[in-house]
Amino acid sequence: MKEANALELLTPQRHASLRMRSLGIAPTHFVPVSTREFAAAAAFCPVLFSKDAATGRFYAGAMLGMKAGENLVGTADDRGGFTPLLLQRQGFFLSGEHVAIDRSDARFSEADGELMFDDSGQPAPALRTVQRILGEIHSGSAETEAFVNAMTLGKLIEPIDISLQFSDGEKLTLQGLYCVSLDRLQQLDDAAALALFRAGHLQHAYTMRASLQQIPRLARLRDRLKPR
């Protein structure tokens, strides 16, 4: 998150001529996602837990690539893929009830891209899309935190090590990743399972498990894209 003093509140008076460029493929391999994104993400990539380096707390994220700086899901070879909301809002932030921007972000330009305000000073379609995305991120945060807390308190999270070998001989072992334990889910008593179901957490847990099938698919995609 950007420091508050690095941001500018977005206004038509100050930013009438400012334009926003289209998103490129973000060079990042693991991005936090909300539970509302799980189903869309799981169609393209694994949805896993990792731990925040500063706090040690679990968070859910979409694995877009196999190592730092790699995003396989955003390539043309991946049918357009899945773009997490946090990447879609690049350069934009919420400051209280207002939209703020990091003016230094490459997303913004005076020369090219779409204007953010129309002639009457109202948000243009591109900016309205970003406003909707910011709203979705904000509204989904509490639901996601509740899910992660339920999985943590129920001791339903287990580590998962991913070992891969590619056709050029490269070997990768991905560590520091976690998923929901099917064994522990199946050992829950009826009352605990019903509580998770009614809260919507059980569906998210099984979506995470189902997303593991995307690991070999991503590996094949990576193998195909590697220079020969």
Question: What does this entry look like structurally?
Answer:
This protein is of the alpha+beta class and 228 residues long. It has one domain (4-225). Helix content is 35%, strand content 21%. The protein has helices at 12-15, 38-42, 85-88, 125-153, 182-186, 190-199, 201-210, 214-225, and strands at 8-9, 19-20, 30-32, 47-51, 58-63, 92-95, 98-101, 108-109, 114-115, 157-165, 171-180. The chain has a three-stranded antiparallel sheet with strand order 1-7-6, with helices on one face. Strands 8-2-9 form a three-stranded antiparallel sheet, with no helix packed on it. It starts with 7 loop residues before the first strand and ends with a helix.
Query: Can you list the strand order of the major beta sheet?
Result: 1-7-6
The secondary-structure class comes to alpha+beta
User: Multimeric state of these chains?
Assistant: single chain
Basic shape: globular
Residue share in helix: 25-40%
Cα-atom radius of gyration: 20 Å
Secondary-structure element series: EHEEHEEHEEEEHEEHHHH
* Distinct helical segment count: 8
